């Protein structure tokens, strides 16, 4: 009898560890992604059969056609193309550059034109170099020291920042605005240290702009690899008379029509409440755009497939949007938001993946305090999958234009330590994406979409005037 009583006591006092409905759904999502995920196969085709997808290119159109066909094959309720006019900038013949210590004594260095730059003169450009640590140095030096020279922006990304995107933000202004600002002081061209924490021989391109600079006053701009930047810096310190030569053949053509690719599952209870998950389909042309942002596109596509395959019936309308022209114009994100507003659509949530296909760590959330707390309250559901970061922060460039009061925006946040090794460079290629990490990211995104859809967002209390 005593033994029976002890067993009865243990049964009553021991917690009951059966899985909740949410735990079961998340496990089903992760299991499906890790055993039958489609993201890696889709990315393989985008990267190895199509390649770099610069806006307005043949490859960008091939990517539109391919992803639409794949979404059609998933049995979604609706798949369509949303027209958008995009800029067409072409690189032309590969760039060439060297450091000249004295006539006849030269060392070649790797460079690439920045996206949107003008070309050098047909014979190239050769001039003395003045090194600066940022745009703010231009005013200190003045026109007398800058005019007739090539300005060399050599501020590196800060290696002490664990958040590498913060390090990137700390010096990307010299890439975007460096040419426009140096031109005001009579510079002939600019060379910019690549946005890369690693020392290597890959120059990293990226968007730049001239602002209101007249066309005939625009000067060419190129990125130099980090190894090349260190060599150039050391050379001009030892020999201030050294010169730099570079030649690039890029050109801005007329805008052309392209498309956002959109797929939709209609909500069963609240079809007018729309939730978006997406990435940008365009990429730079040096590599094949696997991490930036082929990964985000195929993960977003797989979110809808994962929910369908696990038998989940969404209450709200779920859309995957593959945005065109994030890299050099933001036309796709702006067009989607414009059409949504013109139609009076009610978007309650949007999630973007545009930080690479590395191991997911969590989400940055742009939302009200109440909605942030709700999402942070789901942390325990994600911890078995080593997802632990749920913090207030930015979401994504393409979904930013959708932002309205009460809406929840989120960005997938993978581990970022290796991201800028590949960002906008020739080595952003398929072999640098790990299949399991990519699939974990898709499952993590699908899990958050499921929870937001099931529980909704917290209504914002509007203050009466």
How would you describe this protein?
- The longest helix has 21 residues, at 435-455.
- This protein is 35% helix and 24% strand.
- The chain has 465 residues and is an alpha/beta fold.
- It has helices at 2-13, 21-36, 39-50, 58-73, 136-141, 143-146, 164-169, 173-183, 226-238, 290-309, 331-342, 369-376, 379-382, 419-422, 435-455, and strands at 78-90, 96-102, 105-108, 111-113, 125-132, 150-153, 189-193, 221-224, 243-247, 251-265, 270-280, 316-323, 346-352, 360-366, 389-392, 408-414.
- The model is unreliable at 1-17 (pLDDT under 50).
- It contains 15 helices and 16 strands.
- The strands form two sheets. Strands 1-10-12-11-13-16-14-15 form an eight-stranded mixed sheet, with helices on both faces. Strands 3-2-9-5-6-7-8-4 form an eight-stranded mixed sheet.
- Residues 1-20 form the signal peptide.
- Keywords: Carboxypeptidase, Endoplasmic reticulum, Glycoprotein, Golgi apparatus, Hydrolase, Lysosome, Metal-binding, Metalloprotease, Protease, Secreted, Signal, Zinc, Zymogen.
- Residues 260-447 form the Peptidase M28 domain.
- InterPro entries: CPQ (IPR039866), Peptidase_M28 (IPR007484).
């Amino acid at each position: 009898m005593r033994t029976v009583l002890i067993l009865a006591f243990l049964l009553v006092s021991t917690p009951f560890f059966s899985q909740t409905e949410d735990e079961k759904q998340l496990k089903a999502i992760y299991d499906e992604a890790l055993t039958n995920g489609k993201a890696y196969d889709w990315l393989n085709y985008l990267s190895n059969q199509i390649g770099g997808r610069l806006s307005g290119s043949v490859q960008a159109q091939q990517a539109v056609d391919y992803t639409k066909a794949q979404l059609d094959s998933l049995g979604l309720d609706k798949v369509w193309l949303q027209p958008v006019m995009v800029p067409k900038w072409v690189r032309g013949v590969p760039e060439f550059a060297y450091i000249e210590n004295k006539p006849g004594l030269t060392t070649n260095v790797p460079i690439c034109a920045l996206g949107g730059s003008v070309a050098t003169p047909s014979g190239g450009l050769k001039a003395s170099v003045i090194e600066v640590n940022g745009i703010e140095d231009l005013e200190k030096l003045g026109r007398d020291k800058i005019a007739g020279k090539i300005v060399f922006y050599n501020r590196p990304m800060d290696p002490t920042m664990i958040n590498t995107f913060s390090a990137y933000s700390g010096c990307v202004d010299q890439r975007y605005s460096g040419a426009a600002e140096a031109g005001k002081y009579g510079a002939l061209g600019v060379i910019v240290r690549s946005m890369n924490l690693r020392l290597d021989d890959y120059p990293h391109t990226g968007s730049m702009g001239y602002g209101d600079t007249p066309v005939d006053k625009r000067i060419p701009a190129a990125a130099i690899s980090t190894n090349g930047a260190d060599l150039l810096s050391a050379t001009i310190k030892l020999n201030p008379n050294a010169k730099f030569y570079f030649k690039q053949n890029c050109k801005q053509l007329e805008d052309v029509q392209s498309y956002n690719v959109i797929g939709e599952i209609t909500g069963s209870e609240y079809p007018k409440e729309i939730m978006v998950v997406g990435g940008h389909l365009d990429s730079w042309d040096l590599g094949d755009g696997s991490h930036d942002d082929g990964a985000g596109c195929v993960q977003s596509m797989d979110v809808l497939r994962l929910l369908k395959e696990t038998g989940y019936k969404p209450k709200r309308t779920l859309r995957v949007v593959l945005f065109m022209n994030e890299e050099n114009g933001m036309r796709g994100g702006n067009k989607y938001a414009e059409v949504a507003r013109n139609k009076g659509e009610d978007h309650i949530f949007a999630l973007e993946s545009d930080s690479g296909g590395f191991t997911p760590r969590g989400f940055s959330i742009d939302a009200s305090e109440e909605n942030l707390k709700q999402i942070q309250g789901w942390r325990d559901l994600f911890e078995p999958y080593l997802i632990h970061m749920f913090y207030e922060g930015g979401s994504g460039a393409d979904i930013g234009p959708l932002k309205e009061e009460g809406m929840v925006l989120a960005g997938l946040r993978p581990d970022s330590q290796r991201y800028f090794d590949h960002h906008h460079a020739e080595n952003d290629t398929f072999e640098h994406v790990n299949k399991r990490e990519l699939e974990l990211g898709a499952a993590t995104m699908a899990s958050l979409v499921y929870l937001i859809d099931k529980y909704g967002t917290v209504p914002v209390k509007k203050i009466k005037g």
